[in-house]
């Protein structure tokens, strides 16, 4: 059966468009009876059912193929973080491959992993300290390393006099829900300041995090470049203590590397060399 005939039969059998006009032609071509004809009704024979099920699978594969062809110029990336917004390596990649388009989706942790496993996402971008993806067969490569600062309002420093007192007196404000991340921050801060926080306040959006900091509701750990020009904040650089925790990783499944993702990985490797 040639491609033209196959497409025609797919349309007729799967979509049920004018089947009676073409059943005889189809049976003649296959040299078998596909339908039992009784009183203007058609019932599938055993061979007809086999043909129908097989054509459904072929049609599903055809649809998937069409979708894949349509998406060949797009790289789908899921985002876990909104703090880190300056990815020079991605900008240079888009300039190098102008025919490719990178689509970014900001999703919850479970949605990111579901999208990755379903091949709806090519890769994720996430801070290395988060653990939601680490029980899966993933590979990672570092996109960037960020300088980070402990941030609070100058009013809190004036009130408590030292950053140690601030840490032990007010909540840690974060967008991360990962309990392992919270514990890592606790441990690292204790190593630096010999004290740590007792309460975590979770927010969903970066603007709300900045608002609460501005209102002296707590402190945060943030990329320095995102807050260094805000005069209302007091900053202490803690990058050397959080160097291994504050890497930004590109995360992908070992068995799910698309052609476009391989291009990106090659570009990242070239930039590092």
Q: What does this 3D model show about the protein?
A:
The strands form 4 sheets. A 5-stranded mixed beta sheet has the order 4-3-5-12-6. Strands 10-7-11 form a 3-stranded antiparallel beta sheet. The protein folds into 3 domains: 68 residues, Winged helix-like DNA-binding domain superfamily/Winged helix DNA-binding domain (Arc Repressor Mutant, subunit A, Orthogonal Bundle), CATH 1.10.10.10; 98 residues, 3-Layer(aba) Sandwich (D-Maltodextrin-Binding Protein, domain 2); 90 residues, Periplasmic binding protein-like II (D-Maltodextrin-Binding Protein, domain 2, 3-Layer(aba) Sandwich), CATH 3.40.190. The longest helix is centred in the N-terminal third of the chain and has 25 residues. Helices cover 44% and strands 22% of the residues. The protein has 273 residues and is of the alpha/beta class.
């Amino acid at each position: 059966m040639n491609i033209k005939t196959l497409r025609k039969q797919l349309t007729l059998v799967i979509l049920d468009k004018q089947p009676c006009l073409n059943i005889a032609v189809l049976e003649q071509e296959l040299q078998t009876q596909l339908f039992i004809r009784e009183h203007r009704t058609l019932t599938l024979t055993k061979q007809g059912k086999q043909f129908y099920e097989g054509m459904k699978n072929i049609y599903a594969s055809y649809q998937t193929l069409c979708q894949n062809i349509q998406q060949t110029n797009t790289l789908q990336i899921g985002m876990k973080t909104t703090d880190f917004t300056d990815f020079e390596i991605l900008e240079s990649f888009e300039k190098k491959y102008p025919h490719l388009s990178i689509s970014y989706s900001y999703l919850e942790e479970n949605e990111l992993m579901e999208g990755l496993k379903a091949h709806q996402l090519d890769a994720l971008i996430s801070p290395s300290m988060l653990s939601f993806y680490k029980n899966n067969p993933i590979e990672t490569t570092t996109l960037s390393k960020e300088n980070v600062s402990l941030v609070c309002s100058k009013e809190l420093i004036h009130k408590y006099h030292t950053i140690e007192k601030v840490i032990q007196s007010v909540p840690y404000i974060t967008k991360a829900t990962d309990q392992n991340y919270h514990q890592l921050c606790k441990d690292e801060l204790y190593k630096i300041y010999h004290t740590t926080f007792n309460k975590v306040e979770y927010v969903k959006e970066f603007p709300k995090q900045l608002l609460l900091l501005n209102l002296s509701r707590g402190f945060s750990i943030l990329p320095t470049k995102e807050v260094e020009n805000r005069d209302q904040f007091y900053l202490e650089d803690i990058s050397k203590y959080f160097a291994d925790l504050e890497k930004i990783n590109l995360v992908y499944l070992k068995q799910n590397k698309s052609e476009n993702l391989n291009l990106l990985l090659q570009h990242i490797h070239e930039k590092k060399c």
